[in-house]
Amino acid sequence: MRSGDGPDFGAGAPAEITLALDAGGTVLKGALLVNGQVVPGSFMSRPSESQGPASGTIAGFAGACLRLLRFYTFAYGPLHRNDEVRIGFAFPGPFDYEEGIALLQGVGKYEALYKMSVRDLLRAELHQHSTNTPGIITDLLASADIRFGNDALMFGLGIGLRFPSERLICLTLGTGLGSAFVENGQLVSATDGVPLNGMLFAEPYRDSIVDDYFGRRGILGMASQRGILAENTDVADLAEAAKLGDAEALELFHEYGRRLGEMLLPYVIAFKPDRIVLGGQISNSFALWENDMQQSLGTFSLPVLQLQDGIADVFKGIHKLFEDTDGHPSASLHK
Fold first, then answer.
1. What contacts 26, CB < 8 A, 6 or more positions away?
2. pLDDT for 235-273, tens place per residue?
3. Where are the alpha helices (DSSP H) in 80-150?
4. Given this model, what pLDDT does residue 12 score?
C-alpha cells in the first residue's frame, strides 16, 4: 500500500499515472488519472497561452504537468522510480497527432507552433526542468511518454466508456463542429457511412462544408443574414435572447436544429446509432432546438444526451490513448 489515502497498488507495483490536458484556445484544462480514474480534486484550469510565442505555450504545458504530478504526491504519497507517467493531450486540429506536430493556421490559436513538434518542444522543456531541479518528479516527467489525440475523438472515446455496448454519434459544438462515431467503446472510421476518422467537419453540406454551418461561425453568420447580429453579440447572447422570448432569435435556433438534423440524417440512417451525445458550449442551447432536430430526423429520431460538462469524458478518452501500442488515435479506429 502506498503511503497516504491512495489505492492499493500491490507490493512494489508501479502506479499508472496519466496527466491529461485539454488544450483549448483560451483555457488549458487538466486532471490526474490513476489507473484510468480521474482523481477527485485534481482538476486544474489555467490560461492556455495559445496566442503567444511558442516558448510561453510550451512553458505553460510543462507547468501544468508539474502541478498535476505534484498533486499525485499530495494525494498518494511519494513517487517511485518504476511508476509509469504518461502525458496525454486533447488538441484541436489540424494537427499531426502521430508525430505531435501542430498545423493550425488562421484560427487564432497555437499558430506560433505551426509545423513544430509539440512533443519535442515539451520534452526539451521537461528535460531542462530535470537538469535545473533534479528530483523524482522532474525525472519522471522528462522520461514520460507524450501522446496526442483530436479533442472530439477523445470526447467520443470517453463517452464510449459510459455506453460500452452502444453505437454512438458524439458531437462537440463550439468554435466548429467536432465529431466521433463510436461502437462498443471504439472509434469507427470509413464504414457504414462514417467519414474518414469519423470527422464530419469537412463533409459537404448545402453550399459549403459542415463546419461552416454548425459552429460559432455558422450561427453568427445566420444571425447576420437575418439582420439580428448586433455589435459584440455572441452565440450565448443570442441563446439568452431566445430563452427570454425574442421571436427572431428563437427562429434562428429553430433553423439551426432543422439544419443539424438534416445534416445528420444520412449518417443516422447508415450508421444506426443508439443515441447521439452532445458536448461543447453551443450544445447548452439544446432545449431551444431539440424538437426541430428530431423533426428533421423524422422516423429516424433517437435519444439525445446533452452534457453540461463533458471534460471528465475527454480526460478518460485521453487515458485510452495509452492503450494503443503505436501511440496515436488511429490505432483505435475500426475500418
1. 47, 48, 50
2. 999 999 999 999 999 999 999 999 999 999 999 999 999
3. 118-132, 136-142
4. 57
State pTM to two decimals: 0.90
Contacts 24+ apart (CB under 8 A), 294-301: 294/261, 295/258, 295/261, 296/257, 296/258, 296/259, 296/260, 296/261, 296/262, 296/264, 296/265, 297/261, 297/264, 297/265, 297/268, 298/265, 300/265, 300/268, 300/269
* Cell numbers at 48, concatenated: 492556455
Number of other residues whose CB lies within 10 A of the CB of residue 247: 9
Q: Which residues pair with 37 in a beta bridge?
A: 34
Q: What is the mean pLDDT of residues 137-161?
A: 97
Task: Give CA–CA dist 142/303, Å, rounded.
Answer: 45
Instruction: Please state, in angstroms and rounded to a whole number, the distance separating the CA atoms of residues 183 and 201.
Output: 20
CA distance 107 to 23: 14
Rg of the chain over Cα atoms, rounded to whole angstroms, equals 21
Strand partners, 170: 180, 277
**Do residues 158 and 313 make contact, with C-beta atoms less than 8 angstroms apart?**
yes
- What span, in angstroms and rounded, lies between the C-alpha atoms of 44 and 60? 12
Instruction: Say how far apart CA 60 and CA 25 lie, in whole Å.
Output: 13
Q: Could you read off the pLDDT of 173-214 as tens digits, one per residue?
A: 988 899 999 999 999 999 988 999 999 999 999 999 999 999
Q: Note the pLDDT tens digit of each residue in 32-54.
A: 999 889 999 999 999 998 989 99
What is the average pLDDT across 92-119? 93
* Helix 216-225 and helix 247-271, axial crossing angle in degrees, nearest 10: 130
For residue 264, what are the CA distances in angstroms to 67, 167, 171, 329?
A: 41, 15, 11, 24
